[in-house]
Amino acid sequence: MAGHRRTTFIGSVTYLRDDDIEKPFRNVRICPPQQTSQVFVTDGACTTVNIAAPVRTEGVVLGGEVRQGFKPMWILPDTLLSVSVTNNLNTEEWGLAIPLYFADRSGAFSGGLRFGHQWGGRNADGGRKAAESVFGGVVGAKVDLSGAR
């Protein structure tokens, strides 16, 4: 574990090009109008569609990350904590990711837990995006202190 206790600082510059449908226009359920003799619309008559074309966004994303390895307690495996912050200069969107990786039997960090949060930013129509938070598990991602994923 001695090699796992060091701290690593990582910086990044990324060009991003994304074609995506805005959330309010994704997977909208559309049903045909009801007939006067029909009390309700059956599910078979309804369909789910995207009601807008994808919007392309391009920009530069700056990021910084700090990784720290440690041994929390004698029962728990070696652990790697990573904190990364990103900023999309085009959309003014910020992101925070905090994954916590646990070492497997071979000593490689390959799974764990992840918290992410995004805030700020603009939609294609210029409106502000709502903040979003996610929490989940990480499975099979090989990560180390050197910055390799």
Show the helix and strand layout.
Elements lengths: L6 E14 L7 E3 L16 E3 L5 E16 L8 E10 L4 E11 L5 E12 L11 E12 L6
Antiparallel strand pairs: 1-4, 2-3, 4-5, 5-6, 6-7, 7-8
- How many helices? The count is 0
Order of helices and strands: EEEEEEEE
Q: Bin the strand percentage.
A: over 45%
Q: Kindly report how far apart the N and C termini lie.
A: 19 Å
The major β-sheet equals: 6 strands, antiparallel
Helical amount: under 10%
Structural class category: mainly beta
Shape: elongated
Gyration radius from CA atoms, angstroms: 22 Å
Total DSSP E strands: 8
For the biggest β-sheet, the strand order reads: 1-4-5-6-7-8
Average pLDDT figure: 81
Name the poorly predicted regions: none
Could you characterize what this model shows?
By secondary structure, the chain is an all-beta fold. Helix content is 0%, strand content 54%. It has no helices and eight strands. The strands form two sheets. It has a six-stranded antiparallel sheet, with no helix packed on it. It has a two-stranded antiparallel sheet with strand order 2-3.
Can you give me a brief rundown of this structure?
This protein is mainly β.
List its salient traits.
149 residues
